[in-house]
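It is worth pausing here to work through a concrete case rather than discussing structure prediction in the abstract. The textbook approach is simple: state the sequence, then state the predicted structure, then interpret. We follow exactly that order.
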Amino acid sequence: MSGFKTFSSRLLTAEVPTAAALGLILILLSVGASAQEAVPPAPSPTATPTPESSPTVEVEPSDESAAATEIADESGSTPEPTPTTTAGPDSADESAATAEAMPTPIPDTESNDETGAASNASQIPQMESKNEVPEEPKEQFDLNAYPEAAKMSPKEKWNTFKDGFRGLLVWDFFDSRLTIRASARVQIDGMLAKPDDKMESFYGDGTSSLNLRRFQLFAQGTIDHHLRYSLSFNFGADPGFGDIFVEGREHGLNVFGYRVGQFRLGSFQEPFSFERVMSSYYTGFLERSLPVWAFAPGSNIGYMVYDTTKNKRFTWAAGFFSWGQNNEANASNSVLSVTSRVTWLPVYRDGGRRLLHVGGSFSSRDPNGDTQYRSRPEARFVDFLVDTGQFSASRIKLYGLEFVGVRGPLSFQSELIVSEISGTELGSARLWGSYVQVSWFLTGEYKSYDTNMGVFSRVIPKQESRGLFRKKPGGGLELTGRISNVDLVDGSVNGGEMVDFSFGVNWYLSATSAVKFNYINSNVKDRGRANILALRYQFRPLPVPGWR
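Step two, the predicted structure:
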């Protein structure tokens, strides 16, 4: 195991000058005009479409719909499935009653039939103490909503990009049978790590660094009006392809005339773990927790079917997966895997301001060779501190439990992940890890929840930042705390034990930009401890409606 002296201190901008330059441009643009982020692309005065020349499927942009939430993945975005029902009556009434106190989260959960919802609301009394039916998301994705953008010149598109700061460039071809929306995301990390004398004797000196954590170029769009796709590539610390998939846009998978659910085919995030399925841009800390880092599978090649029930209280996903990108963000690699996840909302009130989420994940995996579990101390540019080394295994079973709650600005989340390993040269072993995390918004925001995928989504500050040195700087301010552990010792497997105590402050400048600070106290059993400071700036553009 290499020590702290192997910590990365290079600037990735030296290795990828083009990516770094683009990242700096995005930063300057997003900071310079954050107040304009919610502005949709302005139509060209010389390229106004007509009914005869271009499709006219309109989506009226608004301050709310411009900020539609995204789901993710570590390496790509997850579009929401096609809705089939209308919103419940309570969510419509209660969201109107609370509009003054808190802006409604990004309208990924708009009603498909406002008239029907209002009619139902007039017939059914307002439920004050009972749970709500989560609002049904409205299928909004249609790049024909931006026909003027498709006819703009490159210069006009660049000006629209600068003015709107949505990171949005849109094209369509063949009478809109092929549409493309291109953009980029960026995360830049600074880090300072200092081990105590005992840990220094094992791993070497600490260090400091400034690195490009992620710089992702991606494209999303539709094919022949029936399929939608996503492509992404990361130039950051873990370079390589991200999510590359196609899925049904409207009807999903049908068997003998019965709709089973949405389908997805390609290379994408396996449905395992609340924190793993959630985008890295929406996590409360810079990095995911120790057990998720050590055990959870990442993006692999496969086929998945997923869906949510009509009342939006239950989600499920299941798929078959094989090889994928071999990197540290993809633990538990496998030749053939069956992975599934289910979630349930026993409580959902006030439009998601009060909720209780429980869920579980399972994965049966065939490693067909060497297996290795290891983890960093929740800081990407610090070396691995616990590591089993490679050992032979014939079968791995992963079990995950998740428990999440939101009560206004307060939230908590907790997960337990267990890995059962059989057929090893060292005998069977059971390794595990867990974490508990709490969050509090000092400025009154709350964690937005995506009822289609069962994870947290984009945070929208009540007031955008006006500058750090203003009397009232604005933005959303969040305090976070987390305790996590991973145990890689059982039987003849001895990879070590680690416990992290973390504290974070997140400043959400706008719906697209945030600055995050983390303090991590990492303790490795019998090997000492280290204190780590980490700072991140991140930018993720607003999505085309219907994508996250």
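Step three, interpretation. Residues 17-32 form the longest helix (16 residues). Confidence is low (pLDDT under 50) at residues 1-129, 136-147.
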